Amino acid sequence: MTAEGSPTDTLPTRRFVFGALCKVGVGILVGLVIADFAAGAYDTDRDLRRPGALEVDEHLAWTNKPGATLNDGKTHINSHGLRGPEIPADADPRELRLLGMGASRTFGDGTDEDDQIWSNVLQTLLSREHPGTRVLNGGVNGYSAMQSARRAMKLNPVLQPDLILLVISPGAQMLLDPSSAANWTTVDGEIAPRDVVEAFPAVFASLAVRAHKLLLGSNLYARYRAQLASSGDRPPELRRFIYSERPRSAEAESMMQPVWNELREFAAFAAQHEVEVRAVLIPEAHQGSDEIWNKWKLSSTQRGGPALDMPREEPTLALRARLEGIGFKVWVLDEAILQIGSNVDRFTVDERHWSALGHRIIGTELMRAFEQEPELLDTLAARRQANPRG
Amino acid sequence: MAFHTWQFGVFLAIVLGLFWLIAGHRNARSVLLLAASYVFYGSWEPWFLLLIVFSTVLDYHCAQWMEASTTKSRRKAVLLLSLAGNLGLLAYFKYSLWTVELLEPVLPEDGAGAALRTAAWSAVVPVGISFYTFQTLSYTIDVYRGTLKPARNLLDFALFVSFFPQLVAGPIVRASSFLPQLEWKPRFDRARLHDGLYRIGTGLMKKALIADTLALYLVDPVHNSPGEWAAWVHVLATFGFSFQIYFDFSGYSDIAIGTARLFGFDLPENFLQPMQSKSIREFWRRWHTTLSFWVRDYVYFPLGGSKASEPRVVFNLIVTMVIIGLWHGASVLWLLYGLFQGIAMALERWFERLRGGKQFATTPFKKALSFVFTLSFVSFTLLAVRGESFESVAAVLTEFGEGNELPIWAWLAIAASILTHYQPAKFYAGFTKRLLALPTVVQGVLMGLVIGVLIFVMSSSNAFIYFQF
Questions:
Q1: φ and ψ at A31, to 5 degrees?
Q2: Which of A4, B162, B335, B381 is the most exposed place for a label (fewest CB within 10 A)?
Q3: Contact (CB<8Å) A299/B228
């Protein structure tokens, strides 16, 4: 193959070359500005950069957008980023307050009305014995257990809950966190994305973080960071991962490690701040019955799914043991999932997220869990009476 | 650092600026480009540099020794040294694991068997090794044949081996076309600048807008969950993957060619509208041409090419295509890929001989038929690239479901593939001419828009597919 073109006798002058390159540089900047405006208009129109109720958070990767309303105003996010109404300013400082943390099932994705979701159901049931009990919904769509635990620690000083219900499931979303929530650091006391800081030599870290925060004003950069925060997709071979004690790939182990670390930190945090915690282990939707489970295993063999001989209960039991090993008291809502799995058309909206009737089952089963620990709420109420919120 | 990252953009701006500051000094600009190329390559893994330096030093001296040799036997011995050194490295890093897997039934558990396994499992394929190995081999072979004089000095040769625009994924450059360019004064004018920017912009759009979109919305969903999609979606995804890999790889080549042009260098074209081919032989004259022609010149022709008996020609074709298959990857799938290509080419040749040497595609209908057959054959055999195992390939070919709703982005990517690849040549030439005639600052604006679109659509960092070779 011969090269096209032929030699030339004259070298272009520097003036010509750099003049041309400068024109290109100016043109690139103009083009980027135009593209930036276009991106902003597109995303604003579709609310893509901040889809629904979510906004980017450097520490959590994303979180609920305070003040957002969805579903024609039927779904509300209050000023603390919790689903539901505001906590009244004149709320009784001695009220019993429970905080539920989890992902989309906890948030109640798919059920528009705030008062139909499990937290409201539970609040109604609890209020019979303990009037004035408030159940707060801290669920965030797409969350892992790591993000839930971290957010609980962030919300604790503000909300001062008496009991935190940390909803957790044995699947990939909860336990294999690929988001930027695992990749943060601090520079000059400020939370910053680790990839931004580590892209430059340490001496430029402060400058890099400042440039990053300045660039967040650009629609394109903000969009890129939002995608980075929420993506980091799990590899195809881990998308159908479900927890068990059976041997796992090194990649699964490395993705789970930050989750266990965060849960251990959360357990220690709760002990230190005298906040009661219950890990509420809700099996995955595909554990809703033996039939659903077997069908799911067959369709998951190409995507890192479990062995075909794994019984339905195995992931739940294994995760329970693991959580108890970390120090959590665990409530398992297997009965709830079996009830929901018995009629997915009735109790779910998309075979995964609960319908209003499904939420009622969850709320009722949680109430049953409380009844298994009859002293719990009395103890918490007494503690709060003696130590009202300041 | 991949071409579609901001790090490469900053790197290119710095190197380009420095290059044109010192462009009048021959050795200085070569040193700068060499240093930049090593920085570029070392950004993947610093230890990769040891291998490329080894190949560079070995082949530079082999060429010098061959030039100084007075006997053919001595020249041959030196050539064998070069072949052994380069192919030995390639064999270890790329093929040792596969070899060990093939020999597993007979390898002893301990002793030599254990040592072999350990050595194979620790072999990480250095990015671009297949490309630069072939590049350096063409140099020593050409010097051996007497068709090329050795490089003036080690600096020039090292730059030929490692020139960063084409280092990790081609085009595979011949020393006979690159080394003379080092002697010339660097070329830069309005036309070359506009063309360079156009090629870079086109390459980025091919990758980000078409290849990545095809992957994300059509190919990956079907390959990840074959049982959820209807049969026609599988067919679409199979054709889609061949276009995905074309746009990904040709996009990279465009960026390489455009980048080199900004420094005053010309690199060979690598893709000549291959999806318009009407025969498998034509396809391989249009697809990854620098590899095809390399294998033609250094394997097919030395074996006898087409000037041998018919059985021998068939043998030559099959061996050549199997080498091309194995160049891509160390697996039975790749071996079979090459084998199918070779058999198809042999059958085409036989069919043509049956017709007395006359071409088949002489009427519009026959041309259409040939085109459909070629595209189908290419697409279905390319499943070996996408599937990582026989099971996954079989799943795509046999496990069907009922899902038939593709997102709009998949359809837009399919439409873009067809419109860009099958537009009339006259229209494309006219459009390009008008585009390149626009002022320089407008070229910059267009590049800025391309970069903006790239940032906008990038949803994941799909690495260039051919980086694995």
A1: -60, -40
A2: A4
A3: yes
* 8 Å CB contact between B196 and B261: yes
Q: Are residues A151 and A189 in the same domain?
A: no
Residues A133 and A252 in one domain: yes
Q: Do the chains contact at A39 and B448, CB–CB below 8 Å?
A: no
Distance from CA of B373 to the nearest CA of A (A): 29
Best mutation site among B138, B199, B294, B441 for testing chain A: the one with the most A CBs within 10 Å? B441
Q: Is pTM beyond 0.90 here?
A: no
Give yes or no for a contact between A297 and A318, defined as CB atoms under 8 angstroms apart.
Answer: no
Q: What is the pLDDT of residue A229?
A: 64
Are B16 and A21 in contact (CB < 8 Å)? yes
Name the band, by pLDDT with cuts 50, 70 and 90, for residue B445. very high
Q: Is the pLDDT of residue B461 over 60?
A: no
Q: Which residues contact B151 (CB under 8 A, 6 or more apart)?
A: B60, B63, B139, B157, B160, B175, B179
State pLDDT tens for residues A63-105. 998 998 888 888 999 999 999 999 999 999 999 999 999 999 9
Instruction: Give the structural domain span for A307.
Output: 78-179+237-385
* Per-residue CA distances from B444 to A18, A26, B324, B452 (Å): 14, 7, 39, 12
Contact (CB<8Å) A31/B266: no
> Is some CB atom of chain B closer than 8 A to the CB atom of A45?
no
Q: What's the CATH number where A150 sits?
A: 3.40.50.1110
ipTM metric: 0.85
* pLDDT at residue B357 greater than cutoff 90: no
Domain count, chain A: 2
* Within a domain: A266: yes
Q: Is B234 a catalytic residue?
A: no
- For residues A250 and A103, state if they share a domain: yes
Nearest CA in chain B to A23: B441
Same domain for A93 and A222, yes or no, is no
Q: Helix or strand or coil: residue B309?
A: coil
Tell me, yes or no, whether A216 and A342 share the same domain. Answer: no
85-124 in chain A: CB under 8 A from chain B: none
Contact A386/B at CB under 8 A: no
Question: In this model, does residue A252 exceed pLDDT 90?
Answer: no
Q: Which residues contact A362 (CB under 8 A, 6 or more apart)?
A: A118, A121, A282, A333, A336, A354
Q: How confident is the model at residue A227 (pLDDT cuts 50, 70, 90)?
A: low
Cβ contact A231–B459 (<8 Å): yes
